[in-house]
Each structure stands twice: as structure tokens, then as C-alpha cells.
Design goal:
This protein has 264 residues and is mostly helical. 62% of the residues lie in helices and 0% in strands.
Length: 264
């Protein structure tokens, strides 16, 4: 009897592990497919350079009317010492997708209760951003002539873009909105809300650094970052009152996968 009981417990454990692995694989495939579709959709939205440059000039004038700091003057001042440029380019190119991927893995395996809401925010913000790319193509500041911008990725490397617009899988006319900034804000929100310990508040530097990097490297305007942040904040607000996406944990911030349900 004891042997049969032990074999039954082992079988249940194996089934639970298999269920966890299958659920994790399913979520991985879902998110990879969605993010891949988002990236490919961005590429499809790059067919109207005329509108992209017209929108860029309009946005530039709007920012000046709003008395936002001149991005070109800010970049010129920062380039008095250019030791920051290569690290900033690396941050722009290397951090964005790895950071959101690591964040999703952390939430799914160690803060499972928060996963449905985080997933909804990522999917929703990607969908809205893609619609904006089609509706409002926008050339980045580094492509604007006559304003004094330096294309720092071309001048210093590494570059996230091909030498010519329309080549490769990256749309250079998708500056609005900046999900670099929006998802950096989401990561900071998630870690602070669901993490533990005082060190988690250091993550607040991530969206600040990201915002400065995308502007100083002339890849985005101020309003690109504002729009990306607004989309994520709106998604968080809209998902806050949905019971199925409730990420509150009784008794403290966050929870482990062992204490949460297996279902995603």
C-alpha cells in the first residue's frame, strides 16, 4: 500500500510538472508570436516616407509651441563629452526586448498572479502602438535635415537600423509612440508593485534613463516617449477593475509560482 501511495504521489507530481511546463510553453509561444507579429507589422507600416517627414515637421512645431526643450540643442550640449554615446546606443539596441522578456519570465514564474494583467497590458499596448504606426508614420529626429541632429548610431555604433529606410525588418518611420519608454515604465511599475525589498525602487531609474537615451540619441521626440507612457498607463488603468486580471495578493506584495494556480 505504501508503495502504491508513493507511486501515486510521484505520478501526481509528474503530471503537475508536465502541466506547468506545457502552460509555460504555451505562454512563451503566444507572446513570441504576438511580439513577432508586432515587429513585422511595424515593418509593413513604413511605406509612406512623405507623410512620415510631414508628420515629423508638424510634431516638431507642436513641441516648440508647447515649449518643450529643443532635442537638438540638448543633444549638442550633451556631445561636449561623447563618452556616453556608445553606452547609450548599446542601451537602446540591447536592453529593450531582453528587459521586457526577462520581466515577463519573472512575472510568469515568480509572480504568477500578476501575469494575466501584465500580459494584457503588453498585448494591448503593442496593438495600440501598431495602429498608431499605420495612422501616424513619423520620421525620427535623426532623419530631420536642418535641425542639427547627429545620427549617433551611425556615427558611433552600434546601429539598430539598416543603412536605407525600408530595408531590413525595422521600420525607421515608427517613432511614435516609443514603447522603449512605455515598456520601461511597465517594468518599473511591475517590479515596484510586485517585488520585495527596498532595492526594487532602483528600477525607477530604468524608464528615466530610457527616456533620456531615446531622446539624446535622436531616435525619438519627447512626445514619442509621452505617448508610449500614456498608452501603458491607460492600459494599466483599464485593466485595474477587471476581476479576471486582479493582481492584488492578500498579505503582501507579490507571490511565488508555488502559491499561485497553475492556470495562466
Amino acid at each position: 500500500m505504501r508503495r502504491w501511495a508513493g507511486e501515486g504521489a510521484t505520478l501526481r507530481h509528474d503530471r503537475r510538472v508536465t502541466g506547468l511546463a506545457f502552460a509555460a510553453a504555451l505562454q512563451f509561444v503566444l507572446m513570441a508570436a504576438v511580439l513577432g507579429a508586432y515587429g513585422y507589422g511595424r515593418h509593413l507600416a513604413d511605406g509612406d516616407p512623405g507623410r512620415a517627414f510631414s508628420n515629423a515637421r508638424w510634431l516638431w512645431d507642436l513641441e516648440r509651441a508647447l515649449r518643450l526643450p529643443d532635442e537638438a540643442s540638448l543633444q549638442k550640449g550633451a556631445l561636449r563629452w561623447d563618452g556616453w554615446v556608445r553606452p547609450a546606443n548599446e542601451y537602446y539596441v540591447r536592453v529593450h526586448f531582453p528587459a521586457i522578456t526577462v520581466f515577463m519570465v519573472w512575472v510568469y514564474f515568480w509572480r504568477r498572479r500578476a501575469w494575466p494583467r501584465v500580459r494584457a497590458v503588453i498585448l494591448g499596448s503593442a496593438a495600440v502602438a501598431l495602429l498608431v504606426h499605420f495612422a501616424f508614420p513619423l520620421a525620427p529626429p535623426r532623419m530631420l535635415d536642418g535641425h542639427g541632429f547627429v545620427d549617433l548610431m551611425t556615427a558611433y555604433g552600434p546601429s539598430a537600423y539598416s543603412s536605407e529606410p525600408g530595408e531590413g525588418m525595422t521600420n525607421q518611420f515608427a517613432a511614435m509612440p516609443s514603447l522603449h519608454v512605455g515598456w520601461a515604465l511597465l517594468i518599473a511599475w511591475g517590479v515596484i508593485r510586485h517585488g520585495r525589498g527596498r532595492w526594487r525602487y532602483l528600477i525607477a531609474a530604468h524608464p528615466v534613463i530610457t527616456f533620456l537615451v531615446v531622446v539624446l540619441t535622436a531616435n525619438h521626440y519627447w512626445l514619442d516617449g509621452v505617448a508610449g507612457s500614456a498608452i501603458v498607463v491607460a492600459a494599466l488603468w483599464l485593466t485595474a477593475g477587471i476581476p479576471a486580471l486582479d493582481d492584488r495578493t492578500p498579505g503582501g506584495a507579490g507571490t511565488s509560482a508555488r502559491r499561485d494556480s497553475v492556470g495562466a
